[in-house]
Design a protein that fits this description.
Chain B: GO terms for molecular function: magnesium ion binding; oxidoreductase activity, acting on the aldehyde or oxo group of donors. Chain B: Residues 20-207 form the Pyruvate/ketoisovalerate oxidoreductase catalytic domain. The complex is a heterodimer of chains A (344) and B (615). Chain A contains eleven helices and twelve strands. Chain A has 344 residues and is an alpha/beta fold. Chain A has a domain at 11-229: 3-Layer(aba) Sandwich (Rossmann fold). Chain B has four domains: 4-223, Pyruvate-ferredoxin Oxidoreductase, domain 3 (3-Layer(aba) Sandwich), CATH 3.40.920.10; 234-420, Rossmann fold, CATH 3.40.50.970; 427-500, no CATH class; 506-613, Rossmann fold, CATH 3.40.50. In chain B, the strands form five sheets. Chain B has a seven-stranded mixed β-sheet with strand order 11-10-12-13-15-14-21, with helices on both faces. A six-stranded mixed β-sheet of chain B has the order 3-4-2-5-6-7, with helices on both faces. The longest helix of chain B is centred in the N-terminal third of the chain and has 20 residues, at 194-213. Chain B is globular, with a radius of gyration of 27 Å. The chains are: A alpha/beta (344), B alpha/beta (615).
Chain lengths: 344, 615
């Protein structure tokens, strides 16, 4: 096999000529810039990259990428992208969605894309609010949230997107934050390298309708004590001085946070995203409370399972390999199959 | 004993039994034998939605009607000449359709006190005068089958289940059918269980021999082959023909076919059939729901495949939003609606034509699409090709309106020469089309077809974004400009209206008719048979049948205005009639039935004769 040709693309190549129309200060700008800067790294030609989105603020994303793109309808991007990806395995297909788009109206398509392991990179911009419709609570809003549609507080329990994805048999699950470009790009890199569905939740600030939703994870004064930065092969410790750690209590089902000083080193969990049992990644996804303490970011899970695309393509290839006739001859044979009779 | 042989020109037989009695299979086999003989055929299966309704009950009755003749026929027949009733429920459920004088072959073994009570017979209809006026042939089908298999190594249950083959053997003898294909079929079907091959063949032969020896059947019938155009034929259902049409569209366009589908009666058989044809480059995906099914098909079309989705009315309702997206994106997409009786779950295994309004108008915004309806089972093949042709040439969603009657009915199909099928090759955009030579304008239209370029991902230099937001003419950029929106809405409507479709043909052999009967879709057969019957009686009547419902043929208005009376029979409450009245200001008479069953030719004949009196 020959070496791939270096395309020498730059961030500028991925900027479309369209004026970006998010609110000033929106977290989406930071994500767009990070993605545009990251894409050249993949060395995939722009024409072989497709961004498919649904409806919502984040779903305007494809208009700003100078690749192929489709801004579709609310919640349906994973379904449309599935048809594209399965029939065009040569393409790199990305889905951009939001918490309302992916988890509310499009929940069914998201879980089925994940369990099929379609070769899609799914970026879920989670701002815990409906922005484009001007501020209703979303399926990731905290209980009691006061919004335009819930003046005395929402009664709904929220989804934990990562727990949901893991329950849907996702093979790659990660989380990152809009404002941390370096980390965001590191998770995108891992997602892009993954064969099959890669689900990435990006905490994104809506400065108009839910400003500061993730502030503790960004404020230099608090973030180190709130964030757990997962690194493959490393013991999970966090805090400004590494004062906290994650352990698996002997009789517990999940993971817990302890004081590092009071914990024997061998009891500290060493992060391994390749653990086959999704219970581990699930336990990681359950660590944070709604006060955002103990929020892991990074790659939770990355395991190998044949993608839906590859299985479908193999079946097609196998069937076609047996063919010795032209398509027209095959068709004539098919039309005339079964019991036929001739009238002269 | 030598039996008398009598010639007939046509016969209608109905096989009726419990859902578990194998009546569909029996009917299928009889049809196949009949096809081999060269008769013209039309069939009508009728079965409950429940897979196994309680045994022996009226809701559990399943039937299969086959009409065969020595001339070309248009319908599966209004009323059976022969009823095979495998149990009291089958007799009771079907007797109402049977004209006096008809033959009834009953399985007497099932006429037990318990079975009679299940369907409300106080006494056995075989013993009272319920069947007076019919030619009743009591046959102990079950016990004779078990007796015939006594020497074979099969369980009593398996032996009892072979009774449908006994019935088939008897009927095959009565109508002098060739049975080699049935024996071959049984060998294939039970290839893994040789004892069942032997049992079913023995049951079939026992039925045949019983006919030959019993004195109850004194007459054997022959129906000469029909005069049909020369060529090779096969018997085909509408769903099978439609599936083959989609495969053919893939071959003739050179494009991969992608079918997104969610199981739904009566469309699932298309998914089953297409899933077998991967060697043609046909990908099938059983999606998580109807919306994902069309979404995936649209995604595949975006990528350069022929995207197809198959469903029934409830599924079209769910797909509506995506159809509108496809209208905005101007991408090829074929949506197959095998209509069934609605609203809601309605009667899933019964036929209706009540989705026409939904196909024409059932979307948000001004969202015109092309709509085509096949008129018979074999026509589904050509209608599918036509739907694909329009979708690919004009880059538009096309709704193909089949229905349960054509989907599950069957008729002989003269196999087309593959080379004679339409050439559906398309050209993808490969280079910038802007005046500056470098810009790509995704909404710059072909002046002939008004279609926009199909620029598929992977084409360097044509990267562009499309979406559901209104687009500026030519550039495809997001636009909220009032004049642009007005222009785009009108253009989307105009481009559908401008699709050239063949003129409407009128069948009026003597050219003196003053009344026109206009139909669409599966009513072609019964309307045609009624018109023939009227003409044979010297009553002039013209028939025209719409295949293209959107756009409609250019000459339709002129045709309608050239008759004193226009009658529109439909299996809905007058949906086409309303469109015709609204569009052409023609005072058409709507004749409507929504009984879940096709029209009978006789009722249409009676109705049309009444209308004629006032013309």
């Amino acid at each position: 096999m020959s070496e791939p040709i270096a395309l020498k693309l730059t961030a500028k190549d991925f900027k479309s000529d369209q004026e970006v129309r998010w609110c000033p200060g929106c977290g989406d700008y930071a994500i767009l810039a990070a993605v545009q800067q990251f894409m050249p790294e993949l060395n995939i030609a722009r024409e072989n990259t497709v961004f498919v989105s649904g409806i919502g603020c984040s779903s305007r994303f494809p208009y700003y990428m100078n690749t192929y793109g489709m801004h579709s309808i609310h919640g349906r991007a994973p379904a449309i992208a599935t048809g594209l990806s399965v029939s065009r395995p040569d393409l790199s297909v990305w889905v951009v969605t939001g918490d309302g788009d992916a988890l509310s109206i499009g929940g069914n398509h998201l879980i089925h894309a994940l369990r099929r392991n379609v070769n899609l990179k799914i970026l879920l911009f989670n701002n815990r609010i409906y922005g484009l419709t001007k501020g209703q609570y979303s399926p990731t809003s905290e209980v009691g949230k006061i919004t335009k549609s819930t003046p005395v507080g929402s009664a709904d329990a929220p989804f934990n997107p990562l727990s949901l994805a893991l329950g849907a048999e996702a093979t790659f699950v990660g989380r990152t934050i809009d404002s941390d470009r370096k980390h965001l790009q590191s998770v995108l890199r891992a997602a892009a390298e993954h064969e099959g569905s890669a689900f990435v939740e990006i905490y994104q600030n809506c400065n108009i309708f839910n400003d500061g939703a993730f502030e503790q994870l960004k404020d230099p004064g608090t973030r180190d004590d709130y964030l757990i930065r997962l690194e493959h092969g490393q013991p999970i410790t966090f805090g400004k001085d590494g004062q906290y750690c994650v352990v698996h209590p002997p009789r517990g089902f999940g993971l817990e946070v302890r004081e590092t000083a009071a914990t024997p080193a061998e009891e500290i969990v060493v992060h391994d995203a390749t653990v086959a049992d999704p219970a581990y990644a699930f336990a990681l996804s359950r660590l944070p409370g709604f006060d955002l303490r103990n929020t892991p970011i990074g790659v939770f899970r990355s395991v190998r399972r044949p993608s839906y695309d590859s299985v479908v393509q193999e079946q097609l290839a196998e069937a076609k390999a047996k063919v010795t006739e032209t398509p027209e001859q095959q068709l004539a044979g098919l039309l005339g199959s079964g019991d036929t009779w001739t009238i002269s | 004993m030598t039996k008398q042989i009598r010639q007939l020109d046509r016969v209608v037989i109905r096989f009726a039994g419990d859902s578990g009695d194998g009546m569909q299979l029996t009917g299928d086999r009889f049809t196949s034998e009949t096809a081999q003989l060269g008769n013209d055929i039309s069939t009508l299966p009728n079965f409950p939605a429940e897979i196994r309704a309680p045994a022996g009950t009226l809701p559990g009755v399943s039937s299969f009607q086959v009409h065969f003749a020595d001339y070309d026929i248009l319908t599966p027949g209004d009323a059976p000449n022969v009823l095979v009733a495998m149990n009291p429920a089958a007799l009771k459920a079907n007797l109402v359709d049977l004209p006096r004088g008809a033959d009834i072959i009953v399985n007497t073994d099932e006429f037990t006190k318990r079975n009679l009570a299940k369907v409300g017979y106080a006494s056995s209809p075989l013993d009272d005068d319920t069947l007076a006026g019919y030619a009743v042939h009591p046959v102990a089908l079950t016990s004779m089958t078990i007796g015939a298999l006594a020497e074979l190594d099969v369980s009593k249950k398996d032996a009892e289940r072979a009774k449908n083959m006994f019935a088939l053997g008897l009927l095959s003898w009565m109508y002098s059918r060739p049975y080699e294909s049935t024996l071959r079929f049984l060998e294939r079907k039970f290839a893994k269980r040789p004892e069942l091959v032997a049992a079913n063949i023995a049951a079939f032969k026992a039925g045949w021999n019983f006919g030959e020896t019993t004195e109850d059947f004194a007459v054997r019938y022959e129906i000469k082959p029909a005069k049909m155009p020369a060529g090779t034929y096969r018997n085909i259902t509408g769903n099978a023909a439609l599936s083959l049409g989609i495969v053919a569209a893939g071959v003739r366009s050179g494009l991969p076919v992608f079918l997104g589908a969610y199981p739904i009666t009566p469309a699932s058989d298309i998914l089953h059939e297409l899933s077998k044809h991967k060697r043609f480059g046909v990908t099938t995906m059983q999606a998580e729901d109807e919306i994902a099914a069309i979404g995936a098909a649209l995604g595949a079309s975006y990528g350069g495949a022929l995207g197809v989705t198959t469903t029934s009315g409830p599924g079209v309702a769910l797909k509506s939003e995506t159809i509108s997206l496809a209208v905005a994106l101007e991408l090829p997409l074929v949506i197959v609606d095998v209509q069934r009786a609605g609203p809601s779950t309605g009667m899933p295994t019964k036929t209706e034509q009540a989705d026409l309004n939904m196909a024409l108008f059932g979307r948000h915004g001004e969202a015109p699409v092309a709509v085509i309806a096949p008129k018979s089972p074999s026509d589904c093949f050509h209608a599918a090709l036509e739907a694909a042709r329009i979708a690919l040439t004009y880059r538009t969603p096309v709704i193909l309106l089949s229905d349960n009657y054509v989907a599950n009915g069957s008729e002989p199909w003269l196999l087309p020469d593959v080379a004679s099928l339409p050439d559906l090759r398309v050209e993808f955009a490969t280079a910038p089309n802007g005046e500056d030579g470098t810009t790509f304008l995704p909404y710059l239209r072909d002046p002939q077809t008004l279609a926009r370029p199909w620029a598929i991902p992977g084409t360097a230099g044509l990267e562009h974004r499309i979406g559901g937001l209104e687009k500026a003419d030519k550039t495809g950029d997001i636009s909220y400009d009032p004049a642009n929106h007005d222009f785009m809405v009108r253009t989307r409507a105009a481009r559908i209206e401008a699709i050239p479709v063949p003129d409407l043909e009128v069948e009026d052999p003597d050219g003196d008719a003053r009344m026109l009967v206009l139909g669409w879709g599966s009513t072609y057969g019964p309307i045609g048979a009624a018109c023939r019957a009227l003409r044979q009686r010297g009553l002039p009547v013209a028939q025209a049948h719409l295949r293209h419902l959107a756009p409609m043929p250019a000459n339709l208005g002129a045709v309608l205005r050239s008759y004193d009376r226009v009658v529109i029979p439909e299996m809905n409450l007058g949906q086409l009639a309303q469109v015709i009245r609204g569009r052409y200001l023609v005072d058409a008479i709507a004749y409507n039935q929504v009984r879940g069953l096709p029209f009978t030719a006789a009722e249409l004949e009676t109705m049309l004769e009444e209308v004629l009196k006032n013309v």
